[in-house]
Amino acid sequence: MVVSIDWNLCVGSGECVARAPRAFELVHFEDGLTVRAILRGVDDANVLREAAEACPTLAIHLRTGDGQVYPPT
Fold first, then answer.
1. Please, what's the largest Cα pairwise distance for the chain?
2. Looking at residue 72, what is its pLDDT?
3. pLDDT of residue 67
4. Contact between 28 and 37 (Cβ < 8 Å)
């Protein structure tokens, strides 16, 4: 599974970190205002799916070799 985060959509809510702390981390930028999620590791596919579904802006995208898994197109 390939996991990506669209920073144009990410608002740094932290829902992904709450559900998959081994996979995601929030970073604070030097401007002191911007917070975004980054990938920091891997986790179980079900946990990653739960984190993606919890994202309020649908910024987390999950893909397999068959195509996009989440969010649905």
1. 40
2. 86
3. 84
4. no
Judge whether 3 and 50 are in contact, CB under 8 Å.
no
The pLDDT averaged over each successive group of 10 residues in the chain (73 residues) is 95 97 95 93 91 97 89 85
From CA 16, how far away is CA 43, in angstroms rounded?
A: 12
Beta bridge partners of 23: none
How far apart (Å, rounded) are the C-alpha atoms in residues 23 and 15? 12
- Nearest-10 Cα torsion for 14, 19, 22, 27: 0
Using alpha carbons only, how large is the chain's radius of gyration in Å? 12
SS3 48: helix
- The sign of the torsion formed by the CA atoms of 58, 53, 38, 2 equals negative
Quickly tell me which residue has 């996009």 as its tokens. Answer: 68
